[in-house]
Amino acid sequence: MQYVDNIVFVAVLALAILWFSKQVGKIRRNINLGRDIDRTDNKSARWQTMLRVAFGQSKMQARPIPGILHFIVYAGFILINIEVLEIVLDGVLGTHRLFAEPLGGLYDVVINFFEILAVLVITACVVFLIRRNVIKVPRFTKPEMKGWATRDGNNILYIEIILMLALLTMNATEANFEHAVAGPFLISQYLAPIFSGMSQDTLHIVERFAWWFHIIGILAFLNYLPISKHFHIILAFPNTWYSNLKAKGSFPNMEAVTKEVKMMLDPTADPFAAPSADDSGAAPERFGAKDVTDLNWVNLMNAYSCTECGRCTSECPANMTGKKLSPRKVMMDTRDRLEEVGKNIDLNGEFKDDGKSLLDDYISREELWACTSCNACVQACPVNIDPLSIIVQMRNFLVMEESAAPQELNLMMTNVENNGAPWQFAQADRLNWKDEA
Amino acid sequence: MKVPTMAEMMAAGQKPEVLFWVGCAGSFDDRAKKITRAFVQLLNKAGVSFAVLGTEESCTGDPAKRAGNEFLFQMQAMMNIEVLNGYEVQSIVTTCPHCFNTLKNEYPELGGKYEVMHHTQFLKKLLNDGRLKVEGGSYKGKRITFHDPCYLGRANDEYEAPREVLSKLEADLSEMKSCKQRGLCCGAGGAQMFKEAEKGDKEVNIERTEQALETQPDVIATGCPFCNTMMTDGVKIKEQSTKVKVYDVAELLADAQA
Predict the structure, then answer these.
(1) What cellular component GO annotations does this protein have (chain A) (predicted)?
(2) Hey, which of A117, A180, B55, B212 has its CA 20 to 30 A from A1?
(3) What is the pLDDT of residues A218-252, one digit of tens each?
């Protein structure tokens, strides 16, 4: 009977990890539904970007208040994991505070440091909750935040607060133990009197309850990540590693188009020539993006990395002036549609046409045409997500596959085609400015 | 005005130091033409050997590409590259950040590899090399605020060149609340210049003009013909045209020549 606890713990742990891997596997499969794109060049710059932007959170600090608060929660998350390691080992081995004896006095120092962190994390989370629900910071109340997005944001904060409280409760009960292996505790000594009237037996039960509550809470939270915006704590790292390193103004040139244009401009090209051997005869890829599977996999990873903070939207000139476009919504829509496509595949073995697409069913044309391509959203994103890339690819589809540009833009393009300028001026008049004034 | 074309230069067996890419706005738009002429004045003053393509220049394809028409963009790009490579052009300067961005970032892959500079970068160089001088002049102590063009700033990380040129005017430079990396768009980019804005509660250029006016400027300086139009319109709508002028960095510098 003495191993019941260990066995139950190992079973719970294994189940949690298994389920989490299964969910991550699905996300991975979904991301791989995107088109191929090579983002493996210049590895040293990529590592540096990841270190600076993801580990160092450099872009978060553009807004100092949430920047600092977020850094606290992030540091808490990373460092308290050391204690989680102890908890897991205790669970597997059936020990109690395994690190206490070998670390000696250092153990108390470390635990007290975690206690301070825990209080800071709770404070930060409370401030975040106030910003979201009391002050109602505008970027958290935009239309795309209705329903699940808002609940998700609050859930995460509540869970984090509860987990930290469980941690402090564990210590507060330990402080009342006759044979305490750790302590005195910097913070939980003030919570300890709450439990001081209890018998040693009850204390141990409360301590065990807090311990189990904490670890099961963490495992449940782990499995909440894949369905939540909070998945960013994992994807922020690869997302910055694979981010675009080129100048933001540099839009990729479509290779398929280059081939055709070269042929058109080549006077020796034979339009009736038999296709060359490397032409597989397969239907050419669609120009631009109508649905998520037309986007590249980095776009799709971007969607899963988005934590819906809305910095992009609050910097967007179109959104700022009341247009429908919201870069955050573009990312949320992409994720929602991709999830829908993924579920479709789960159900049918392969994707069965559901008559829907990212364009029109999720993102309207009005949103797409409101973009000024100013890159403010790309600049604002703390994890280097690129909503502009998706917008431009969807414009590519509208113009090149459907000829569905707004009338005025068609006129502009006709002018460029006919007289080499977006307005109707004769090419011959290009140098007239020289003799005017 | 002395403006040699590449064709004339070639016929005379000469090669200019730099090609001045004028751009469509700079060639045809009445307001932008003034910027073009101011820049040429400076080039001549500094004794820069330059040439333009004249009637051989064509749209870079930028607005087509931003609007989603990759095909038209590449057609324009390939035709321009053929002309540029035909003249063995090596370095290009342009007064339009959109042309600058496209020529610099999107042409190389298609076979057009040049050293491309925005005119504020080029002017900075001329000033630093002592080829151009500012004699304090008319802008000393005047309050100037610089509006970052998206395609110069965020798109290409150039924030300092225009400010450095302006600082030589000994003016009182003040920044808007959104500037540099967080600069707000004027509303013209991404081919918006050529269409009505989508339904909203405000025009982007009004929002930006209000930010500029908050700094109580005498002059709003720009480095882009499209931003210039948008800000000029904004100032007009806010009924501040008599008090606040919108000028390109090149115009200010040309004005400050002794």
Answers:
(1) plasma membrane
(2) A180
(3) 999 999 999 999 999 999 999 999 999 999 999 99
